[in-house]
Amino acid sequence: MASTLPMVVIAFVLAQANLAVHGRVTDSTGALLSGVEVLVTNLQARRIPRLTMSGDSGEYSVNGLAAGRYRVTTYLSGVTSDSVEINLTEAGPDTVDFTLKVVPVSECPAILCETDPAERILSKMWGFPMQRLAVAPGNAKSRADQLRKQAITKQMHALGKAAIPALILALQDPDVQMRRNAGLLLMDLAAGISAEAQPALDISESLPRLMVALKDTDEEVRALAAQSIGYIGPAAKKALPALRDALNDSGDDVRRLALAAIRKIEKP
Known about the structure:
The chain is an alpha+beta fold. The chain has helices at residues 110-113, 117-122, 140-159, 164-170, 176-191, 207-213, 219-232, 240-246, 252-266, and strands at residues 7-15, 18-26, 37-42, 50-53, 59-65, 68-76, 80-88, 97-101.
């Protein structure tokens, strides 16, 4: 008897030295399925997983992946779930299609939902800048993006200190936008900044990684690291040498925020 279960077809392509996962989600009749969550997890390096959803055309895409072993997990609430491990190599062909067998489930599969809650939230930030920008009147997309930023920030605040290890991990990510987002969220947690008033959190456990981030190749990451260290206050004394080095940074904001951090740490 022919299976009535949906299937997922995934293609892997190489473009501009970056590997990408592209896929289309259909059922056995060929009908396109939208709203299917697709989580791509690096099995060789500790990284924030990447989460996306299939669109109205049933297609999804995750770009900028390094060569290596990955787990691709698909899930549609109450309907489908499947997971497959794949090897991405730069020497591979331009397109390789995979058909994944899936099974009906009544709840979120363990592989997907046992992901650390903070990492799962951060996985929604791929390619999405968390920086706050003014919203022009009548700009529906900007307003939607702003609400998305507020929701992510609120969720991370709700996790409290449990969110910090994932942010430390994200601050080491090869993707510069993820590092920027991590720096911004750490600063938000330390300052109690969000759409709603939140208590400031002690983020001192992130200090060693923030000190490394002061040497990041990206100026915005360096500036956010300096600002976050400043919010730690006197407990960040061991960062003073790194902050003094940052006073010679090529970036105006980095120098300004490093000086402000030094003053906060050394305040009587």
